């Protein structure tokens, strides 16, 4: 069993997509074992996206992720990290196939509906920020 970190971003929360996204995660056989809705502080957003500090899209990313409520969650299952990444699709919604969460609900390079950790190290680090 593996545990990963997932966050529904403010664009998706403000459009009322949380339940549909949670349904897709559970329907895939993964389990959401903890979840919490909150508004990220700039400090929390900065920690979450630490590896992007200094990149040209960093400020925009922090402004966006702190712009409204998000839902953070702990997701458990066999190969949960890889399976969540498959469910969400590629970073850029334009390149994300229909049927993936970003393909269906992402609207721009920044506003791509959802985050999921991309490695065991990231999952552990990101979970420790919120749980
Ligand atoms: P992810 O793991 O698929 O979310 O991708 P990354 O870790 O590379 O990027 C983190 C987040 O930063 C993405 O989900 C986007 O919201 C944003 N982002 C990444 N690359 C770009 C980019 O080239 N342009 C813009 N505007 N945002 C980006």
Counting DSSP H or I runs of 4 or more residues, the number of helices is 7
> What summary fits the major beta sheet?
4 strands, antiparallel
Tell me the β content.
Answer: 15-25%
Hetero ligands:
guanosine-5'-diphosphate
First CA to last CA: what distance?
A: 18 Å
Structural class, from helix and strand content? alpha+beta
Radius of gyration: 13 Å
Overview features:
binds guanosine-5'-diphosphate, alpha+beta, globular, four-stranded antiparallel beta sheet, 131 residues
Write the layout of secondary structure elements.
Layout: E1 2-8, H1 10-14, H2 18-27, E2 31-38, H3 42-48, H4 58-65, E3 70-77, H5 80-88, H6 101-105, E4 114-116, H7 120-130
Antiparallel strand pairs: 1-3, 1-4, 2-3
Bound molecules: guanosine-5'-diphosphate (GDP).
What features would you describe in this structure?
The protein has helices at 10-14, 18-27, 42-48, 58-65, 80-88, 101-105, 120-130, and strands at residues 2-8, 31-38, 70-77, 114-116. It is of the alpha+beta class and 131 residues long. It has a four-stranded antiparallel sheet. The longest helix has 11 residues, at 120-130. The two termini are 18 Å apart. The structure holds guanosine-5'-diphosphate (GDP). Guanosine-5'-diphosphate (GDP) binds next to helix 4.
Short description:
By secondary structure, the protein is α+β, with helices and mostly antiparallel strands. It contains 7 helices and 4 strands. The chain is 42% helix and 20% strand.
